[in-house]
Amino acid sequence: MIEAIKLTKVFSKFTAVKDLSFQVQPGEIYALLGPNGSGKSTTMRMLLGLLRPTLGTARIMEYNITSNPEDAKRVMGYVPEEPVLPERLTGYEFINYTADIWRIPRGEKREKEITELLTLLDIEDASNDLIEVYSKGMSRKISLAAALIHRPRVIILDEVQAGIDPRGAATIKEIMTGLASQGATILMSTHVLEIAEQMCDRIGIINEGQMIAEGTMDELRAQARGQSSLEEIFLTLTGGPDMQRIADYLGEVT
Amino acid sequence: MLPVIGAILVGALIYTVVVSIVPIFWADLVLFLRADLGIAATIFNAILLFGFAGSIMFSATTVGNSARMEYLLVMPMRMRIIFLEKTIVIILYNCVLWMVIGFPILLGLGTISTYPLALLAAPIFLVLVFMLVTMGVSIGGLVGLLFSRLLAGRRTLKQIGYFILSTLAIVVSVFWYYSFYFSDNGTVFFDAIFRIADMVGLSSHLSPGYTVSAISIGLVVGAPFGIPDIVAAILFLIIGISLVYANSYVCEIAHYSGWLASGSQRTSKSEFRINHTSWNPRTYLPFTFNTTTSTSIWYNIASIRREGRVIAQYLVGPIRWVIWIVLPGLYMADQMAAFTPYLFVAALIPFATSYGLSFAGYELVYEGKNLMNLQLASANLVDYVKGKVLSATPFVLGASSVVSIMILILYTSMWPLLPAVILGCVFANLVAGSVAANAAAMGGDFRAERKITRQRGAAVQMPIRGWSMLRATLMPNIVAYVGVFSILGVGALNPLYAYVALSAFALICYRLFLSYSRSAGRRLSQIEASEYL
Ligand SMILES: Nc1ncnc2c1ncn2[C@@H]1O[C@H](COP(=O)(O)OP(=O)(O)O)[C@@H](O)[C@H]1O
Ligand SMILES: [Mg+2]
Questions:
Q1: Roughly what angle, to the nearest 10 degrees, separates helices B393-410 and B418-443?
Q2: N or C: which terminus of chain A carries fewer CB neighbours within 10 A?
């Protein structure tokens, strides 16, 4: 499970995340939902031990990420918002490289698993192309395959669906639901409301680094009294578009 | 703004020094300079060479990354103009240093001089330097484009090309400067041009550097440089300008045809899809290392940067060193012939250490975001750094073997010492690599890669900052020179001693390698993500 305890991150003077707490249980898919720049990625990086929290801490399974980062990292898999990929390797080589870095013993079992993952994600065809030729969606799929190669029990996905074709998105959804039902803890971020609505058990809405609402869809509905779609809830909570400015702009253009 | 003020201050300082000191021996200087107007040809030809070596892959990289400047390419103008602009920025950047140094010197000499046209020397010098750099940079760009065309889509060949290029650079730069210092004004290199020039009746002193020297110094000391020199200068200027234009025109063609674009899975000529065979991390070495180290070795060799700026950094650093320090030092020695083999060794060493710097230091920094993967996997970064350092070993082994074979051909009697030289270089490279990795971990600009891809001043951005960079270059070179020349020194008494010295040197190097790798690895594992993401 994931447990964020009063996480705060200050970059020089700017507070990107402020006093953020939430829990994700094993078997659960949790969405961090928020506008651009609201602190989703920063929160995830703190959970992963990539950034040191300014205040607060986090627990991954039974491990404290600040005092025991090695064990905590060992159980996590992460697909970053901007996949970090070596362009001069082929996709297959990259997966192999990642597996080596994770010290997964070589052999038939590993080979088979890699092939399975690549086939599942529809990128087996491209696995012998250099990564520099990959499209955004393909990069993300390779990155996902690499993140799953060591069978993590805690999975963190940062806007994983961006740039992925509908079939791919559906596949990811099925894989994640499946892994969750096997007991994995899954945290994902998105600003696409349908994804959060369809895929996730619980949703945390954050704005300017702070949690402003949290719960299942039903609970959120209850909180936002009467509004039925997540879009309405979201816009009510984080502020809707500035209609006056839009009208002004359109007026100027024509 | 600060660099401008700095440059003006430096210029003013140089000017002051010149006008206050030179008058003391002005009369002698005039006699000396009039005797041979081509005296500074070496330096001026070197400017051209620097321009060339420093921008050899620049155009290819610019075109290759053109997807990253689509925002510029969509502007309503000819694409070649945009590429031209990029090239001119590089040219200007390459000019600045020479102008800041050269202009005040000539201005000072012009002030002292009593010859009527002497004051013209300084402004004309600016134009001439621009001409030199323009030629160097555009030839470099074109050569790079040519190479990239040949290598497009061929990964293994690129790897080999990297090796060949660096070995060639050692050999060529030694020969080129050998000829400058010991025979004439570097005419060997321009032989082909001379022959054509002779046919059309121009003087044989026709290297660009000679022309610049003759005209600027000629103006100062009031010595008549001939019409041919002026014609040559104009001709070189025209050639330079045509070359820049040709360069940007070829860039445009290359861009449209798409064979350079990173991201093309096919060569443009055929429908053939490039399918890269997978490289297996562990099969290429006779030794076995632990998984992390061997993976790191393999990764580094498979993905080492070959873009312009990196090769430029790699080549220019040692070439500069060899040209300004090693060779003049040997020039002083009268008994020239006996020193030639040492000249090769002296030239080889900075290249050997430079492999370490670029494979372990620069690459570590350019790996930037990949640090995230390593930190997430809790990889043992000490082992990983060792792998990076060791990945340069085959290249050093190759380059030093090639140079040794050349020495062997020239001085067969050296044979008992050559294996010691090769191994000495290999071990020195371990020190260079681990020191560089440590410097990178301390002062690496892990976002350097992104800054560079913005295209402007591609060769400018140093991946390692300030003092760390100095530390990364100075210490390993000192170790290498002291070590290898001690080996050669005692080897001159008895070859057997050389191997005793080598064992001691190897041991020291290995210890340094272990301790610096350890320190580098520890630092890297503690770097916060905000440093590289
Ligand atoms: N390394 C950093 N230094 C300074 N500010 C940062 C850094 N990383 C992120 N930020 C800022 O923190 C805020 C939250 O960023 P982020 O977590 O990436 O948002 P999200 O993922 O929700 O779009 C943004 O305003 C961003 O500019
Ligand atoms: Mg984000």
A1: 150
A2: C
Residue A179 host element (H or E): helix A166-181
B372 Cα to chain A: minimum distance (Å): 7
Cβ–ligand 1 distance for A41 under 6 Å, the answer yes
Spatial separation of the C-alpha atoms in residues B241 and B246, rounded to whole Å = 9
ipTM value: 0.75
Cβ-Cβ contacts under 8 Å, A49 against chain B: 375-376
Type of residue numbered B80: R
What sections of B258-335 are H helices per DSSP? Answer: 291-303, 308-321, 327-332
- Out of B278, B369, B376, name the one closest to residue A92 (CB): B278
Q: Is the CB of A97 under 6 A from ligand 1?
A: no
What does each of the 533 residues of chain B score in pLDDT, given as a tens digit?
Answer: 777 888 899 999 999 999 999 888 888 888 888 877 777 777 787 788 778 877 777 787 787 777 667 777 777 778 888 889 888 988 988 888 889 989 999 999 999 888 888 888 899 999 999 999 999 899 988 988 887 777 766 666 666 666 666 666 666 666 665 555 555 544 444 454 445 444 544 444 667 888 888 888 888 888 777 788 888 889 999 999 999 999 999 988 888 776 665 544 444 444 455 556 665 555 555 667 888 888 888 888 777 665 555 555 666 667 666 666 555 555 555 455 566 677 778 878 888 888 888 888 888 888 878 888 888 888 899 999 999 999 889 888 887 887 788 778 777 888 899 999 999 999 999 999 999 999 999 888 877 665 544 443 343 456 777 788 888 888 999 999 999 999 999 998 999 999 999 999 999 999 999 999 999 999 998 888 888 77
Would the pTM of this model clear 0.90, i.e. be above it?
A: no
A49 touches chain B (CB under 8 A): yes
* Domain formed by A2-75+152-253, architecture: 3-Layer(aba) Sandwich (3.40)
